[in-house]
Amino acid sequence: MTAIRLSVYRYQPDRDAESRPAASDAKPFMQTFEVEAPPGMMLREALLAIKAQDETFAFRHSCGEGVCGSDGVNLNGTNCLACITPIAELNQPIQVRPLPGRPVIRDLVVDMTQFYEQYRAVEPYLIRKDPLPEQEIRQSPEDRDKLDGLYECILCGCCSTACPSFWWNPDKFHGPAALLQSWRFLADSRDQATEERLDALEGPYKLFRCHSIMNCVEVCPKGLNPTRAIGKIKELMLEQSV
Amino acid sequence: MAAARSLPHRHFDALIIGAGGAGLNAALRLAAADLRVAVVSKVFPTRSHTVAAQGGVNAALANALPDNWHWHMFDTVKGSDYLGDQDAIETMCREAIPTVYELEHAGVPFSRLDNGRIYQRAFGGQSQNFGGEQAARTCAAADRTGHAILHTLYQQNLRAKTHFFDEHFAVDLIRDEEGVTLGALVLDIESGEPLIIESKTTLLATGGHGQVYRTSTNAFINTGDGMAMALRVGVPLQDMEFYQFHPTGVAGKGMLITEAARGEGGYLINSEGERFMERYAPNALDLASRDVVSRSIVTEIREGRGCGPNQDYVLLKVDHLGADVVHQRLPGITDICRVFLGIDPAKAPIPVFPTAHYAMGGIPTDRHARVVAPARHGPEEVVPGLYAAGECACVSVHGANRLGGNSLLDILVFGRAAGTDILSYVAENPNHRPMRDAHLEPAIARLARWERQGEGERVADVKAELRRLMEDHCGVFRDQATMAEGVEKLKALRERVEGVRLRDHSQTFNTARIEALELDNLVDVGMATLMSALHRDESRGAHSRVDYPQRDDERWMKHSLYQREDDRMDYKPVRTKPLTVDSFPPKPRVY
């Protein structure tokens, strides 16, 4: 087994009870660790190995297989999901930082509040106005196929925190993750709030700050395409306004 | 640690601990009725482990093949090896149908049949007409059904304006002298500050405890928190010896490969290329119950017919189904195989091994999700104000072995049942009961214990040892000597936990402290599992004793109850009487 070196971002606002520096003294720094790397090792396992050496190291993670979306981090400058990102081939030391553009709470843990607020802002739930049938609302397989590539989002935040438009205007621009969900409901043949959804996206920021830079597509660990979804929303807006 | 008096208090009608399918379905019912609901979750809700459920949710919709809830009930009773409570099973199988329609109306993106109805696939242990032809009862959103359901429920809760305490860890329940639950002490993980949530009712919906095993399909967060909280307020755990090993975890790694792989036509082969399930389950073959398939795989390997250089796994073949079926119906496992094994399952077979997966046992409840515990008048006495639902609970609908597709169903039906019962409880008990400092002391002491400084063993080391111990002493096949040794080792390990110390006493997002609190929980549920298993000297469902290979209905058709105090075992009868139909009496279980 070979050892690999990782340089990880550390920031601890309150080191501990005895040696706590004044809040202003707490500065972020990069710390290098060496861990044993079995073949096929994922970044999450390397982070766990670091935590085994130093329990003060903090990061979020849970399912270990890319479905819970907890462990979005920045690896050598690119956002990824730690649990499904192999690291054997990378140049060392491997640089691991928190998702960019968000306030850091501690080490790799960032404050995702604004990201979730933008998600909530697009009313990410099915809105049905007709009375509900006793059984399922029918949907053809073709209509259901339109949701593929949309509903699978795991809200890891890799896309929005890689988006320059979201960096500049996280309070006003919904960002790729939220807009992907917006299209997920617009594209659902069962949803009956198209007009309201489109109206709510009017204005220069919420939707139109997307400049098709496509960082979101590059980094999405689930292979989804928010830029395309945003384009579809714009097309639909145009269609509806004619 | 702050004195009890100075801690902030918040007040709610209902406190829900856990934001998986059970917690969120209960919350939705309550928020829609305008109750003040708090959902406490140690992770952001969509990170809850429901998200990882793959194959689907059972309901006798009869969309693909003829079906009816009574057949579903028969299969579930048989699957449970006759340990399931038939009143609860009838409730679940009847409720399944409106429950799935309700989910669909809420927006779950189910896969569809050509006629626009919900897609249903075959799963293990399903039959038409009480043991006849294979049924197709599992409603699926590709192989991402749990993700689709969890996200939908969270989204609908946003709409209903449920109050979420994200990234808050529940430390312990708070009870008064009369045994009424008053709420819980929780820890804000980000700030490190404790908070008292006073609530008229409390629902434990914390999921399973797969992290007690070294190799598991479960997430890091599945540490039995709710079960251990129940134990610490004197509620026993029921049927903990029945722990399901899923036949098809990725060998050596543990990621789940859904039963849907076999439901769609996949099958298992040994090193000789033989489809060995033909010998163990001539009718159901690879879709026999999970306990049966897991034992068959382990037997093949023990008898030298395992695959690979160490002959320590078997192969799951789906490569004959064609790339279209595999990639369209099983996209999630296609991803898992590509990422973790570097193979395309449409081209190469998948190495699999039975992997710790699911707790049939848990906090004893009735079919209204009310926690029941032995008190003054027998084992079924309702604990006032306390509810449990989902994997942490034991209703019991799964008995000794759960059928695939019944777990998502369980969380939804009984999460909702909890919500319904809470509504009437709060209507009858509209006032908060007084909470005094003395009621808080045990919970605060538990938190304070981890403030101790100095030298000591590390949390991670003891946890790793616990997980290996459980795997070695309480696995697929069990015997007296191995388990007795396991209990002794676990008792010694439990003593050692006293001497474990944290190095990190910081406040902000201290994950080491959370893991320490989880270790306490894992040790308690591990002991419940091992003790219950040691005492049951028969084989039933997932509990397979080499030294007692037969089921013994005369002596053992009863539920185990483990009490934390003195590690005491107790028992109560199985409820064999359904609500409206005839009982299914125990029969030999063949597939």
TrEMBL record, chain A:
Superkingdom of the source species: Bacteria
One Pfam family this sequence matches: Fer2_3
Cofactor: [4Fe-4S] cluster; [2Fe-2S] cluster; [3Fe-4S] cluster
Enzyme nomenclature, EC number: 1.3.5.1
Residue stretches making up the 4Fe-4S ferredoxin-type domain: 143-173
Record family assignment: Belongs to the succinate dehydrogenase/fumarate reductase iron-sulfur protein family.
Pathway where this protein functions: Carbohydrate metabolism; tricarboxylic acid cycle; fumarate from succinate (bacterial route): step 1/1
UniProtKB keywords: 2Fe-2S, 3Fe-4S, 4Fe-4S, Electron transport, Iron, Iron-sulfur, Metal-binding, Oxidoreductase, Transport, Tricarboxylic acid cycle
Catalytic activity: a quinone + succinate = fumarate + a quinol
Protein name: Succinate dehydrogenase iron-sulfur subunit
GO biological process, one term: tricarboxylic acid cycle
Molecular function GO labels: 2 iron, 2 sulfur cluster binding; 3 iron, 4 sulfur cluster binding; 4 iron, 4 sulfur cluster binding; electron transfer activity; metal ion binding; succinate dehydrogenase (quinone) activity
Automatic annotation (TrEMBL), chain B:
Binding site for substrate: 246, 258, 357, 402
Main location: membrane
Region (Disordered): 567-591
Record-annotated Fumarate reductase/succinate dehydrogenase flavoprotein-like C-terminal domain positions: 464-591
GO cellular component: plasma membrane
Protein name: Succinate dehydrogenase flavoprotein subunit
Residue positions binding FAD: 18-23, 41-56, 225, 391, 407-408
SUPFAM superfamilies referenced in this protein's UniProt entry, alphabetically: FAD/NAD(P)-binding domain (SSF51905), Succinate dehydrogenase/fumarate reductase flavoprotein C-terminal domain (SSF46977), Succinate dehydrogenase/fumarate reductase flavoprotein, catalytic domain (SSF56425)
Species of the source: Halochromatium salexigens (Chromatium salexigens)
Cofactor info, note text: Flavinylated by SdhE, about 5% flavinylation occurs in the absence of SdhE.
Pfam family, one: FAD_binding_2
Subcellular localization: Cell inner membrane
PANTHER family in UniProt: SUCCINATE DEHYDROGENASE 2 FLAVOPROTEIN SUBUNIT, SUCCINATE DEHYDROGENASE [UBIQUINONE] FLAVOPROTEIN SUBUNIT, MITOCHONDRIAL
Enzyme Commission identifier(s): 1.3.5.1
Phylogenetic lineage: Bacteria, Pseudomonadati, Pseudomonadota, Gammaproteobacteria, Chromatiales
Any single GO BP term: tricarboxylic acid cycle
Domain FAD-dependent oxidoreductase 2 FAD-binding: 13-408
Stretches assigned to coiled coil: none
Recorded catalytic activity of this chain's protein: a quinone + succinate = fumarate + a quinol
Active site: 290 (proton acceptor)
Leading EC class: oxidoreductase
Top-level taxon in the UniProt lineage: Bacteria
Keywords: Cell inner membrane, Cell membrane, Electron transport, FAD, Flavoprotein, Membrane, Oxidoreductase, Transport, Tricarboxylic acid cycle
Pathway, per record: Carbohydrate metabolism; tricarboxylic acid cycle; fumarate from succinate (bacterial route): step 1/1
Family assignment from sequence similarity: Belongs to the FAD-dependent oxidoreductase 2 family. FRD/SDH subfamily.
Reported cofactor(s): FAD
Tele-8alpha-FAD histidine PTM positions: 49
Membrane topology qualifier: Peripheral membrane protein
